[in-house]
Amino acid sequence: MPESFHPDPDEDRLLRRVQAGDRAALDFLCRREWRPLYRIVAASVPQKAEAEELTQEVFARAIASLPRYRYDGVPFEAYLAQIARNLIRDTWRRAQTGSVVEGDVPDQVSHDAGPEEQAEKAYLRQQLATALDRISPEYREVLRLRVLEGRSGSEVAELLGRTPDAVRQLQHRAMVALRAVFDEPEGALG
User: Fold this and answer.
1) Fewer CB in a 10 Å sphere around the end CB: N or C, the chain?
2) Do the first three CATH levels of 11-101 and 115-183 match, i.e. the same topology?
3) pLDDT tens digits along 148-167
4) Contact call for residues 171 and 142 (beta carbons, < 8 A)
5) What is the DSSP string of the chain?
6) What residues contact 76, with CB distance under 8 A and at least 6 apart?
7) Class at the top of the CATH hierarchy for domain 11-101
8) Longest pairwise C-alpha distance within the chain
9) CATH architecture of the domain with range 115-183
10) Rounded to whole angstroms, how far apart are CA atoms 147 and 161?
């Protein structure tokens, strides 16, 4: 069973114990510094998962450099903060230059749309916009309110000064008109 660790107010002594391989002292140090370090990192990156990952990387780098670390009266928290700032700056620079480092390559396949799918979606949006321009303004308006904005039939009826039944009929006619535009011979939309 691991020996329990009692916090030592003397940081120099704590760090010497960590450097000597005292796992309980290392555990105490990491637990003590985790939140303050995470707050520093989270303030600099937009996503929680990225902040957690970078915080772990800071600890990994700090632990790897512990044999060379010398306590000079500056709190260990400041040492961690400096590592964090350097890591965040390096991460930001890699993102700006677009360079890929082996550690940047994901281990799993991304479920985000790839370039082909994004291009296809952009093309379909453009085709829809062109088709909408070719139907009457009244039809465009009802489709915008009901389909694109997701408003209820009664809300659209109030906005357009019509009854809910009239809005349903108008929406149906708008969809028929839109379908007719899409059914026109190839190339008619572009």
Assistant:
1) N
2) no
3) 778 888 988 998 999 999 99
4) yes
5) -PPP----S-HHHHHHHHHTT-HHHHHHHHHHHHHHHHHHHHTTSS-HHHHHHHHHHHHHHHHHHGGG----SS-HHHHHHHHHHHHHHHHHHHHHHT---GGGS-SS---S--HHHHHHHHHHHHHHHHHHHTS-HHHHHHHIIIIIS---HHHHHHHHTS-HHHHHHHHHHHHHHHHHHHHSPTTS--
6) 11, 15, 29, 33
7) mainly alpha
8) 82
9) Orthogonal Bundle (1.10)
10) 18
Q: So where are the chain's domains?
A: 11-101, 115-183
> How far is the CA of 162 from the CAs of 50, 52, 157, in angstroms?
50, 53, 5
Instruction: State pLDDT tens for residues 63-84.
Output: 888 888 887 777 888 888 888 8
Instruction: Report whether 94 contacts 46 (CB < 8 A).
Output: no
Rounded Cα gap, residues 161 and 152, in angstroms:
14
Tell which residue, 51, 49, 12, 14, has the closest CA to residue 31. 14
